[in-house]
Amino acid sequence: MFSKPLASHNACQHLSIHHYRHMLIQFKRWITLFTCTFLFASCDQPPPLHHETFFILGTLVEFTIADTPEPTAQAAILAAKDEMQRIHTRFATNHSEGETAIFNQLPAHRPFLFSSEEQQLILQAQLLQSQSQQAFQITLGALDQLWGLSQSPMRSTPPSESSIQQLLPDIDCLEPLANQQWQKRVASCQLDFGGIAKGYAIDQGIKMLKAHGIANAIINAGGDMRIIGTKHGTPWKIGIRHPRNATKTIAAVDLSGDVSIVTSGDYERFFIYNDRRYHHILDPKTGYPSDRAQSTTVIADNATLADGWSTALFVLGKEGLPIVEKYGMAALLIDHDGHLYQNQRMDSMLKTAQHPPSLSQQ
């Protein structure tokens, strides 16, 4: 590089300074390159999932949001939570200011005008009642109170046969009148939206998330879910729990887009008496807990439908699977003896399905 040797101290000093500057420039270039590479790599990583859990609707409700900045996700979750709490207060039988509680306190043949929100849910429930061959009914509130499976402390013995028959209402005890009014034909005709209101609350929660610009999320209310979008571009993997072992799943499905999956089970609220399991899903024809299933799962376009139909299927048993198929929904049922059945729509969606021996245990 040089035409003659460097003989002087100043020349050596000049070389050292020149070499140092060259190394510093190269180091800065390397740092810049590393930083840019690191930043671009970080940008390739999807934003983390946002999780929040609240106690609403008598259960733990988990909100999960993907691919969304944290401030947007937090604001959306709080809005959805408040909306779901509003619905719980409005439809719960133990909130004296709600229309449901007010109607239940009225004597028979007293007209009552429901607001449009209650009116629409009543009409949806009555349509489901008709489609499900009366397996679904929202007028079992008095019987639900008698069984006490939603109360604390929960009762530990079944009520008497006579008391059940006394409170068992006719299937048409809720009578529509003119001008959007309703009346009960007998005093024991008490509204209880427990088989459908949770799904409705989930739907309204999702509506609120969408209003805040959320495109990828799950609301999970104690196993009742509605899913929108994807998880970082891939479907959400949803497990269906084992009805006798909460730590295991019996099946899994991949869901994306806008769809709901709801599971009803005899393991949520129950007591054992004389080796028999008494749970909260009542058969409208008998007034006793239905004994045709351990759990039922329905996949539908929205959570209101999935919630109502999972309850109806639980009462119908495996014979109800073709009915659910008829109305365009996928369904899975584990019967009283632990055998697993599914309709054709569900069969095409299942990723895994097992029949563990422990399914048939008490």
Question: What this model shows, in words?
Answer:
The protein has a domain at 50-68 and 212-360: ApbE-like domains (T-fold), CATH 3.10.520. Helix content is 37%, strand content 25%. The chain contains ten helices and 16 strands. The protein is globular.
Topology:
Layout: H1 9-44, E1 50-56, E2 59-65, H2 70-91, H3 99-105, E3 112-113, H4 116-131, H5 141-147, H6 161-167, E4 174-176, E5 181-184, H7 197-211, E6 217-221, E7 224-229, E8 236-242, E9 245-255, E10 257-265, E11 270-273, E12 276-279, E13 293-300, H8 303-316, H9 321-326, E14 330-335, E15 340-342, H10 344-347, E16 350-353
Antiparallel strand pairs: 1-2, 2-6, 3-5, 4-5, 6-7, 7-10, 8-9, 9-16, 10-13, 11-12, 13-14, 14-15
